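A brief tutorial aside. Many learners find it easier to grasp structure tokens once they have seen a single protein encoded end to end. The record that follows does exactly this for NADH-ubiquinone oxidoreductase chain 3. Read the sequence first, then the structure, and try to relate runs of similar tokens to stretches of the chain.
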Amino acid sequence: MMSFYLSLVCLLISFFFFLVFFMVSNRFMMDREKSSPFECGFDPENSARIPFSMRFFLLAVIFLVFDLEIVLLIPFVLYVGVSKSFGCLFTGFCFCMILFIGVLYEWWEGSFNWIY
């Protein structure tokens, strides 16, 4: 029964904060600067069809992919230290080789070059 009351209190507190933040945010919605779009340093008063460098986008995607791979690799390194099995070590080596081949492919394709 106690957990029901605790849940009810948490629900009421969160609803109260929702209402307070909703009322405060409506007051600032009419501000022109806050409601105008701002994308990557472009002036929001110009046309939205301004071309941007596709290399910047490609490098950002490459960064996200390899950043995700590193996040997957860190727990694996900790597991290899605990388990010390050959199969786990071989799997980690194959994973690192796939990453290395991906970096070489991106380098060969020229995705890391900013100057043509």
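Self-check: The chain has two domains: 1-52, 53-116. If you spotted this yourself, you are ready for the next section.
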